[in-house]
UniProtKB/TrEMBL annotation:
Annotated protein name in UniProt: beta-N-acetylhexosaminidase
Species classification: Eukaryota, Viridiplantae, Streptophyta, Embryophyta, Tracheophyta
UniProt entry tagged with the keyword Nucleus: no
A GO biological-process term: glycosaminoglycan metabolic process
Cellular-component GO terms for this entry: membrane
Length: 298
């Protein structure tokens, strides 16, 4: 079906983007298929984590199904549907000796979410992507381990506009104001933005221990193998240095100038190895280290 029926409000959409379709938690065949998939993936990838998804549930899609309509008419709720889904899949994932990772929505969504009693803290990790450090704080305060993928910083696909056709928002004249190119998560996330981010900002020492690390995301609406290298590198290298080595020196000062020189060198090393990483400075700056800094090095 068309993802946004004519005349409908955004809240009544059938998907957040084309195409449409959700798994039906009330259909027993859903779990027959899922258990086969979960088993096969666990065999292929022996890592101890298994990502269970459960993000961005669109109520309009579930509500369009007759069996779910009947369920709701008899007093059921959308959150109970999600609880049914989690309660029918999480134990099976645990039986394969995996720790389950869910997107934060499963606990923090404003409309469809499960009670924390359905998510055992010792076996569940939550991956955050909304509201920056605020949602990280909410997750660890609830006692869960967290993986940080804040869209404001770590979404590498952002800043390239939208992929929908016939989009009337481009008819608007900006009048000197930026409209982020029609991208919901614009602007483009620069390596400096990524390098500057502190995934444990505002957390206590004990809370920070629950943050396992971070993960960048490159969603594929506008990315394919022809642009893969440039979208990922060297921005992901900036994240790696921040998470592995920190972005401050022994005096607590950001190491941005030093990082620029390191990333320049690393970028050219990747290019020499056949990785089409994008440049972060003009070649003149690379050949004259420190001369393109905003502040002269002492």
């Amino acid at each position: 079906m068309f993802w946004l029926p004519a005349g409908s409000d955004w809240g009544d959409r059938l998907a957040s983007e084309p195409g449409t379709g959700h798994l039906n938690p009330l259909n027993p065949k859903t779990y027959q298929v899922l258990k086969n998939v979960i088993r096969d993936v666990s065999i292929l990838f022996p890592e101890t984590f298994y990502h269970g998804g459960a993000d961005e549930i669109v109520p309009g899609c579930w509500k369009a199904d007759p069996t779910i309509q009947s369920f709701i008419a008899n007093g059921g709720t959308l959150s109970q549907l999600l609880e049914t889904f989690v309660n029918s899949t999480l134990p099976y994932i645990l039986s394969l000796n995996r720790t389950v990772v869910y997107w934060e929505d499963v606990l923090l969504d404003g409309i469809v979410k499960v009670d924390s009693s359905f998510l055992p803290k010792e076996h569940t990790i939550l991956q955050t992507w909304n509201n920056g450090t605020n949602n990280t704080k909410r997750i660890v305060e609830a006692g869960y381990r967290a993986i940080v993928s804040s869209s404001e910083v770590y979404y590498l696909d952002c800043g390239h506009g939208d992929f929908l056709g016939n989009d009337s928002q481009y008819d608007q004249q900006a009048g000197g104001e930026s409209l982020n190119g029609g991208s919901w998560c614009g602007p483009f996330k620069t390596w400096q933005t990524i390098y500057d981010y502190d995934i444990t900002y505002g957390l206590s020492e004990d809370e920070a221990k629950l943050v396992l690390g971070g993960e960048v995301a490159l969603w594929s609406e506008q990315a394919d193998p022809t642009v893969l290298d440039a979208r990922i590198w060297p921005r992901t290298s900036a994240m790696a240095e921040t998470l592995w080595s920190g972005n401050r020196d022994e005096y607590g000062k950001k190491r941005s100038a030093e990082a620029t020189d390191r990333l320049n060198e690393w970028r050219y090393r990747m290019v020499s190895r056949g990785v089409k990483a994008e440049p972060i400075q003009p070649l003149w700056c690379v050949r004259n280290p420190g001369m393109c800094n905003a502040v002269e090095s002492s």
